[in-house]
Amino acid sequence: MIRLELDMTPQEIDSLLKEQYDEMGRQTLEAFKQVLQRALEIQRAKMRADGGYNDDTGQLRSSTGGIIYRDGKVMFEDFELAPYGTDKTPGLKEGRELALAQLRESSGWGITLVAGKEYASWVQSNHGLSVLVDAGKEIEKSLDQAFNEVSV
Q1: 4-49, pLDDT tens digit by residue?
Q2: CB-neighbour burial class of residue 91 (10 A; exposed 0-12, middle 13-18, buried 19+)
Q3: In whole angstroms, how far apart are CA 70 and each of 92, 112, 127, 147, 150?
Q4: Are 138 and 42 in contact (CB under 8 A)?
Q5: Chain centre to alpha carbon of residue 26
Q6: β-strand partners of 111
Q7: Are 15 and 122 in contact (CB under 8 A)?
Q8: Which pTM was predicted?
């Protein structure tokens, strides 16, 4: 019979487990940030001034962004004003509000990607232009890659 004795108190064991849990959370958040930022980078590149649809105010482009949440709490958000437009701020505010409205009491991690203007889906479907479709596909691919790369 082999007998192992641990030279740690229960408090030390709890502390060690908490440190490991916290580190896994940090690594997961960093991986999710990379995923979200890459998806938004792809989408924002398609939403340039010559991107195929008019956005004179800059509101549609400013409303595009996302959040990362854990257990119903926002851990990170990425919204930015469009580089041009006559009235960009309302779009950013509406995009952020829409993303926050998607939060629900839950356990675990989530990523929400939005185009916060109510006409975003209309632009996408009626004109065949990318507002969020490509970013959604990119997030799915990036999540698979991130989960394979992160030791969790």
Answers
A1: 787 888 899 899 999 999 999 999 999 889 888 888 877 777 666 5
A2: buried
A3: 22, 11, 35, 16, 17
A4: yes
A5: 15
A6: 68
A7: no
A8: 0.73
